[in-house]
């Protein structure tokens, strides 16, 4: 591992900008999350990060992911019946489509406009910071090949 690797330097820069201490596991995790462009679970991310940093315990993996999520660099989404998924936080408030057949997750652009569900009817004192919508259904592959 050399620090002048470009993705590594970028990850270090992102950590510094977020006010975080730069550590090898954090850099590695940030790199694998941004390289994946998908929605990976902690176990998969751990496997990939280990190729960069060497052994990472599952606990260390969760600690790193939590720190990255808390700092706003990584977005964590929990879908019922699935392990938590992680992706780069792009602050675009996008939603997700989850296939009930194969579990594939696809990003769905935030529906723009004054949808009533985006302005929750809540008593005074609640500060809404995020709205997450999950669409459930079947992806084209699963529709083409019905489950037996
Ligand atoms: Zn599917
Ligand atoms: Zn997403």
From TrEMBL:
Is this entry keyworded Transcription regulation? yes
Top-rank taxon of the source lineage equals: Bacteria
**SUPFAM superfamilies of this UniProt entry?**
Winged helix' DNA-binding domain
Which keywords describe this protein according to UniProt?
Cytoplasm, DNA-binding, Iron, Metal-binding, Repressor, Transcription, Transcription regulation, Zinc
Q: Where in the cell is it found?
A: Cytoplasm
Q: Does the keyword Membrane apply?
A: no
Pfam families linked to this entry: FUR (PF01475)
This chain belongs to the protein called: Fur family transcriptional regulator
């Amino acid at each position: 591992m050399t620090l002048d690797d470009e993705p590594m330097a970028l990850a270090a820069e992102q950590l510094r900008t977020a006010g975080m201490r730069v550590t090898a596991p954090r850099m590695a995790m940030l790199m694998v999350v941004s390289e994946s462009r998908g929605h990976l679970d902690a176990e998969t991310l751990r496997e990939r990060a280990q190729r960069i940093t060497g052994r990472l315990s599952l606990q260390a993996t969760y600690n790193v992911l939590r720190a990255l999520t808390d700092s706003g660099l990584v977005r964590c989404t929990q879908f019922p019946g699935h392990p938590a998924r992680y992706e780069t936080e792009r602050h675009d408030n996008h939603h997700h489509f989850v296939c009930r057949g194969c579990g594939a997750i696809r990003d769905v652009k935030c529906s723009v406009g004054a949808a009533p569900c985006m302005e929750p009817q809540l008593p005074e004192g609640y500060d809404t910071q995020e709205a997450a919508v999950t669409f459930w259904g079947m992806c084209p592959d699963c529709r083409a090949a019905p489950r037996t």
